[in-house]
């Protein structure tokens, strides 16, 4: 599989994704700070999460009603995302996002994501047929029989545990379900380093610029990210 010009797989350097999520808190200037921080420490990509107001999710889960206040606060308009993408291009770092709504699919097409990162909650309901891929799919606790498309030409699985932060004793990467990458939110560097040493092709870690925001406890600093890159 390729992401942009990068070959992904055995014999290739691990592709490192810095996941900023919604930690920009609705300020595109902070989003640009995440881009710059990720680039400065050697990450291959910066990833965000995109939401739009009052639009149904194609992957609802329990507790979403408590998350909307933050999602509404952290939304950016398409024109702002275009500015962030242009800044990322100028920094020579890949830019993409996880999306959860039909509008996000359309925005991703317009922003020309080099890869579609599918969150675990959306693994079974993402509209794969609407975009060309490639896809990185977090598997979470899904039954492998539900995900027989993982490992096909342009789809790769990402091992992850849906606990935030993930306990270290549950964070070790497993080569299963054609799972070639690790999506880690332990808040430490150790699962990523362990996975890379054992052959993982893609590493996604949450990053933070400070200790505010809902993902801070599950995230690492740019300084820590440099130790992975």
TrEMBL record:
InterPro entries: Aldolase_TIM, PseI-like, PseI/NeuA/B-like_N
Species classification: unclassified sequences, metagenomes, ecological metagenomes
Name of the protein this chain belongs to: PseI/NeuA/B-like domain-containing protein
Pfam families, alphabetized: NeuB (PF03102)
PseI/NeuA/B-like domain mapped to chain residues: 35-228
Species of provenance: marine sediment metagenome
GO biological process: carbohydrate biosynthetic process
SUPFAM superfamilies assigned: Aldolase
GO molecular function: N-acylneuraminate-9-phosphate synthase activity
